[in-house]
Structure formats: structure tokens, C-alpha cells
Design goal:
Length: 140
């Protein structure tokens, strides 16, 4: 009986040393995708494009939205987006200062935008001002 207990104890000790002990001896190393420097996330530039047609403010489908500027690291950024059929648009931008230019039906509008670090979104609703429509009277 003593011999069986001794054999069983020796077997369990051997299994423990062979399987569990070597895995605890290795130090944790981070995965290959981590560089050690924090990432400054930006945010979405989103909104809707409007234009006044025959006295009614309507959505501007398929407006061309060009974003140019520099991000927080000094890198030049240029992005192009189009509004969808309902006038909605979105573009993801890293932190930085940008100029947003909107072209729609031979009208051009320009805005300055600053995206901050960890900003979830920046809402920019664009109203195309037509000089022949008296658009400013509708907004006030």
C-alpha cells in the first residue's frame, strides 16, 4: 500500500513539473502589434448638406466634400467624401486642423474644423448659400 502511494505521488509530481511549472517560468511579452506608444484617436466629421431651392430648404444629395489640412503629427491629410442620396456624409479624421470645402451645383462653401484627440464626432451641417436665393432670410 505504501508503495502504491509513493508511486502515485511520484507520478503526480512528475506531471506537475513537466506541464505546469515550465509555463509559469516564461515572462509575458506583448503581441507583435503593440509599439509601446499611445495612439491619438480622432473622430468622425459628419453631418448633412442642405441647399435652398425655390424657397424650400432641401437635402443636397451627392455633394462633393473635400477635406485638406494637417494632423497633430504635422502630416498633410487630404480626404474626399460625397454625401449620400439624403445629403448625409461622414469622414474619419485624425486629430488636427482641417479645411472642409463643399461643392454642389456650381456653388462652393468653405469651413474650418479642428478635430481634437479622442473626439467621438464633430457635427458640421452645411448650408449652401446661394446669392440669388436670399438664403440668410430663411435661417433667421
Amino acid at each position: 500500500m505504501k508503495r502504491n502511494i509513493l508511486t502515485c505521488t511520484a507520478l503526480l509530481l512528475t506531471v506537475y513539473l513537466a506541464t505546469l511549472l515550465p509555463t509559469a517560468a516564461f515572462a509575458y511579452t506583448p503581441g507583435p502589434g503593440y509599439s509601446g506608444t499611445p495612439i491619438n484617436y480622432g473622430g468622425w466629421l459628419l453631418g448633412r448638406v442642405y441647399i435652398e431651392i425655390r424657397g424650400v430648404v432641401e437635402n443636397a444629395p451627392w455633394a462633393k466634400i473635400t477635406v485638406t489640412g494637417t494632423d497633430s503629427s504635422g502630416k498633410a491629410v487630404s480626404d474626399l467624401a460625397y454625401s449620400n442620396g439624403f445629403g448625409n456624409y461622414r469622414a474619419y479624421l485624425s486629430p488636427g486642423t482641417y479645411t472642409v470645402t463643399v461643392n454642389y451645383a456650381h456653388y462652393t462653401q468653405t469651413y474650418n474644423v479642428q478635430i481634437k484627440t479622442d473626439q467621438i464626432y464633430y457635427l458640421l451641417n452645411i448650408y449652401i448659400e446661394r446669392p440669388d436665393a436670399g438664403f440668410k432670410n430663411y435661417l433667421s
